[in-house]
Amino acid sequence: MSRKRSALLLLAAGLCAATAHADTVQVLTSGAFKQIVLALVPSFEARTGHTVVVSNDTAGALARRVVGGEPFDVLVLTPAALKTFAAEGRVEPDSIRPLAKVAIGVAVKSGAPRPEVGTVEQFRQALLQARHVAYIDPAAGGSSGVYLDGLFQRMGIADQIRAKAVLVQGGYVAEKLVTGEADLAVHQISEILPVTGATLVGPIPEAVQNYTTYAGAVGTKALHPEAGQAFLDVLSGERGAAVLQEKGMYPPD
Asked: Could you tell me if 186 and 121 lie in one domain?
């Protein structure tokens, strides 16, 4: 047999072996971390031959889906939620990795005047002066919506805000600016930046800021635990850290 033919056979055998071991990694992620996951999928797929299927939802909705038995290989949620799921035997405790944290920000439609939000009083006035304020519906279980609902109460403006609130069940709150349904949006910064036609004004004041921390874990009933762990290693490694800032997140503490 010629060397060329032998080389071709070895290459074909290698390709068949790679295909035979290619898995589909099911990833469930909270919406705020979705952009990080999606940014890292192409290089991971090209390098490993695996396919990554990403599904996102609010933190509360994801938790309900997990409890309901939805299968997954990798789950991205808050550390507290993953700790609970580890105790319940839903994720592997030793696989939990801190990933990132994100702040809440304020956005307006691109080209619209940008209100001052650097102090608590400025943020309060911006909220009161807006015709319609969009944020995640607290009932949907999104972490920013739950926090803001309580914050507005503590600021003494809950009734005024609820009267003009545009409550979003999930996804990108800032899209309500583009459609004209709201003129102010308050959401996690990583979910504001991807929206074309929306402009980030800045984070809400540090005195009332709420950072949400995210972590990842491999499911105890993962169909492809090794491939899932490999993808989680990418999320928590240097490649993941490199895309955090451009997507509006910070490294975990």
From this structure: yes
